[in-house]
Amino acid sequence: MTPKPGAYDPATLAIGVFGRPHGVTGEISLRPYNARGRELASVREVHLSHDGRWTTHQLVGCRPVEGGYLCRLAGVGDRDAAAKLTLAEVRVARTALPPLAPGEYYVEDVLGCAVEDVSGRSLGVARGTFWNGAHDVMTAAGPDGHEHLIPLVPDFVLLVDGPGRKITVRWDPDDDDL
């Protein structure tokens, strides 16, 4: 598995970054990208991107703590071994995660998608997302260079087709002035 950094990967999902080691027995902190994310109890394998290399590890323990998780990987038995994984991006197979409910999607799936309004007019490509304190917001760069800030909420986002790389939104050009 060697997805390009920032590229859409239909097989895996980035869930966070390893922080510092915890204790002396090889546990390491996981800072999740989504603090409100689902439990990782069903995850058995993680894919790490670190120093330009991809590695796969068996996840043998994961317990929730304030601000994230403490993880234990097979073959990582001491603090020094865990420290070598600090700042590694952690990805998991999408099939290891609970299924999404109808209308749900992962925010990572919007990046790089073509964005269209309900009439099929191009609003550009989703270039980024940010949390505004209430919900995620998508930044779409239009073909004319105009930037649209579209709330990632059901009132605006009608369809996210990750594999098809397309998002359909309810958006009026006048909404850009709000």
Defining key terms:
178 residues; mainly beta; Elongation Factor Tu (Ef-tu), domain 3; SH3 type barrels; six-stranded mixed β-sheet; 1 helix; 12 strands; 46% strand
Description:
- The termini are far apart.
- Strand 4 (53-65) and strand 5 (68-73) form a beta hairpin.
- The longest helix has 5 residues, at 79-83.
- The chain has 178 residues and is an all-beta fold.
- It has a six-stranded antiparallel beta barrel. Strands 10-9-8-7-12-11 form a six-stranded mixed beta sheet, with no helix packed on it.
- It is built from one helix and twelve strands; from the N terminus they run E-E-E-E-E-H-E-E-E-E-E-E-E.
- The protein has one helix spanning 79-83; strands spanning 12-22, 27-32, 45-50, 53-65, 68-73, 89-93, 114-117, 122-131, 136-141, 147-151, 157-161, 166-169.
- It has two domains: 12-96, RimM (Elongation Factor Tu (Ef-tu), domain 3, Beta Barrel); 107-169, SH3 type barrels.
Radius of gyration: 18 Å
Might you state the CATH topology name of the largest domain?
Elongation Factor Tu (Ef-tu), domain 3
In what range is the share of β-strand residues? Answer: over 45%
Strands of the widest sheet, in order across it, are 1-2-5-4-3-6
How far is the N terminus from the C terminus?
Answer: 43 Å
Can you identify the CATH superfamily of the largest domain?
RimM
Number of helices: 1
Oligomer: single chain
How much helical structure, as a percent, in the residues? under 10%
CATH class of the largest domain: Mainly Beta
Report the sheet with the most strands, covering strand number, pairing sense and barrel closure: 6 strands, antiparallel, barrel
